[in-house]
Structures are given as structure tokens and as C-alpha cells.
Amino acid sequence: MKKIYLSVLGFSLICRMSAYAQTSKDSIIRLNPGFSLATSTGQDTNAYRPRALRVDEVNFVSSYYNQNGNHSAVTGGIGTEKVTDFSNGIDLKLVWLNNAMNKNTLSVGLGIDHHTSASAAYVSTTGASNTGGSRIYPSLDWTVENSKKGTSFGIGTYYSSEYNYKSLGADLHFSAKTANKMGEFGVKLQGYFDHVKLIYPSEFIPQSTTTVTTITTASGNSSSSESEGKARIPSSPRNTYTASFSYSQIVTSRLQIMFLADVVTQHGFLSLPFHRVYFSNGKDTIERLPSSRFKLPLGFRANYFLGDNVILRSYYRYYTDNWGSKSNTANLEIAYKVTPFFSISPFYRYYTQTAAKYFAPYEQNSPTQAYFTSNYEYAKFNSQFFGAGFRIAPPKGVLGWESLHELELRYGHYKQNVGLVSDVVSLSLGFK
Predict the structure, then answer these.
(1) Are 371 and 289 in contact (CB under 8 A)?
(2) Which of 7, 52, 113, 211 is least buried, going by the fewest C-beta atoms within 10 A?
(3) C-alpha Rg value of the chain to the nearest Å
(4) Cα–Cα distance measured from residue 246 to residue 30, given in angstroms and rounded to the nearest whole number
């Protein structure tokens, strides 16, 4: 159920990315540190002198996601994966100049998701109807840019809350341009501190008037609770630390490239207790995974201006971790400007991964193993994601509304060779 948020959020970010880089070949696209691409506005920052706090930009993204498949982790690698998700997010950017004439940007974001998941009904064995849930995730980021030195520094914080977990995050990010302003190095340090509620299938919970529940996590820590009639659900920590590095370079007026590398470590309860596993002897238990994980994604981006009306945007990523999974991602998007104010951007992404060493399908895990899962997130599979985006940005505003400077609609279809399919449509509105 977690991966639906990655899909919806990732597609929403693509909406914002495709709105950029739509200028003529004489404009220069600056590749920012991180995962997004941003265009130069054509303004000279040195001549930019608004001291007072003002609203610079407001972005709104709304997405609808629908998924289906037959390998639910909740029921041990079989059963429905039907999910629907409706997501809305708003991002407000405030800017001002301080006494040193450095540009300050304060970004305030708020996102709300609501989803229904058929498999959630089988967290218990009551066979209840489809279960829904909501997630709320505010964010705050403050960045100070020194245009004379070509440096920027910022801090950010995030919070996310859902029925089975709460997460608090923070980051520090820094970037510095080369002396000729044609290259830029960036680094971002992030930490996420989660608490996962230990929600177990009902067949593994003792039923009595007074319930005492003792949970031992994969890290060896135990927690217990006692109440009359219904036990309080304990939780277990899960911490994630990420160091992201990037270097972007304007090679020519037509070609810009970027190299990316992340170092990720996770510690704590990395399983989900409502994910069932059925052994080869027919007995069932809950998913158990190691209490630590190391991930290393390496990426490369390239943008190429093919004439006045066509921009090629490509991306490749290699991923490996110490659970035995490796993956390759290749993405190509072609932005074609039909008119000066209307563009279309078809895209295609291919992904392939190997299975983690702890994965086995339904009734194929051995009861003698120390760790086991039937979650197809860790299975061997390949996938395709393709669709198109449509963007309008008339000089007098969308439908004559000057404040609404751009509108983009995107559709994508996703399919795995193991049966999972999904569709997502997203609407992005940009206000100035």
C-alpha cells in the first residue's frame, strides 16, 4: 500500500518538471540539485530588488490513481491489490531580500491523500468491506541564495501521518556554482524518523477480555500493552538517513547534464506486521525482514534542445542494496512545442529489478529461514510507464486569468509483467 504514494507523488513531480524547460533554445535551463529540473526565468538576480515579503508562486497539483493486481502482501502474495487514491497538494513560495541583498525563499506545502484498498479488509480475518484511509503531509523549506557567490543554503522539515505510521523529517541542503556559472554542485542531507504501528492480523492477536500484547521487533526490542477489551496498538521506530549529491553542467547552449548519487541507510522495524507469509508447509506467519538496510542509487540526466520546438529529456538510474536487489531505470520524454503557448510531452519509462534474497511467492518460503517476505515489491519483475502531458501557458493567463500562468494535464499508464497495472491522471495549476 505504501508504493501507491510514491507513484502518485512521483507523477505529480513529473507534472511540475514538464512545465519547465519549455523556453526557446536561447534560454538556459539550470539543472538544480535533487530530482527536479528548473528553468531560468531570464531575470538578472542582481537587478532583482524587492525587499518586502511577497508571494512569488502558488502551485496546486491534484491526482487520481487507480491500481489493480493479484499479488497482495496482506494475504501472503495472492489476492487483490485494488487501490484507488485521490491526492491534492498545494505549494506556496514566498520571497524577500535581506539586508545583504540575498534572496530568501520560504516554501510552505500541504498535501492530503485519501485512498481505498481492498486488501486492507484482510488485515483482520473478518472479511470486512473495502477499507479507506487518509494521509496528511505538511512541509516547510527555507533557502537563502547568494547570487554574487553563486551559493545557496537551506533547511527543511516534513511531517506525515497515516493510520499505521507517523513520520517526521528534516534536511539541510547546499549548492555552489562553478566560477564560470556553467556548473553547480549540490548536497542534501535528510533524516526521516518514523513510528510504525504494529497492526497484526487478527489470527495472531490473543482474544480475551483483558488483552496483553507483547511484540518483539526484528531489531530485538519488545513493547507491550494491556487494556480491558481492546489493546492499545504499540509502535516501533524506523529511521532513514540519506545523503544526496549532484553535479550539473551546461555543456553547450543545447546540452545540459547532471550526475546524481544517493547514500541511504535505514534502521529499525523495516517489516510490516500485517503482511502475511505462507510457508511451504502450509503454515502462515507475518513478514520478517532485517532491521537495517543500505541503498545506493546512481543517476544521470541529460536535456538536449533539438531545434526551437523540441526538447529531449532523458534519465537513467542504477540501484543496488544489501538485501540483494538491483534495478535499472531508463526514461525518455520528448517535449514538443506545438505553438509558443501550447506543448505536448509524451514519455516512456522502462524499469527492471532483481528479487531481494528474502522474497519468495505464496507458500514457497521455508520456515527455517531467518527472514522472509511475499511482498512483490521485493520480487523480480520489469515494468513500463508511458503517457503524455499537455501544457498551456498563454502570456495573458489561462482563460484570460492573468494570475493562472500555466495549466498542465498528464496521464500515465503503468504495468508490470507480474500482473500489476495502474492508471494515474494529474492536473497541475501554476499561479503567479
Answers:
(1) yes
(2) 52
(3) 24
(4) 13
| pTM for this prediction | 0.83
CB count within 10 Å of CB 127 equals 7
Beta pairing, strands 210-216 & 222-228: antiparallel
Confidence of residue 338 (pLDDT cuts 50, 70, 90): very high
Partners of residue 132 on adjacent β-strands: 116
Helix (H) or strand (E) holding 12, with range, is helix 3-18
Q: Is 242 helix (H, G, I), strand (E, B) or coil?
A: strand
* pLDDT given for residue 10 in this prediction: 46
Using DSSP, state whether 195 is helix, strand or coil.
Answer: strand
State pLDDT tens for residues 175-211.
999 999 999 999 999 999 999 998 888 788 755 433 3
Inter-residue contact 369 to 347 (CB < 8 Å) = no
Answer yes or no: are the C-beta atoms of 288 and 86 closer than 8 Å: no
Closest CA to 36 of 65, 54, 57, 15: 15
Residue with cell 487494556: 227
Rounded Cα–Cα distance for residues 42 and 291 (Å): 49
pLDDT digits (tens, 9 = 90+) for 19-62: 333 333 333 232 233 333 333 333 444 455 557 889 999 999 99
* Pairing, β 404-416 against β 421-431: antiparallel
Residue with grid cell 496482506, as numbered in its chain: 74
* Domains of the chain in sequence order: 3-431 (2.40.160.40)
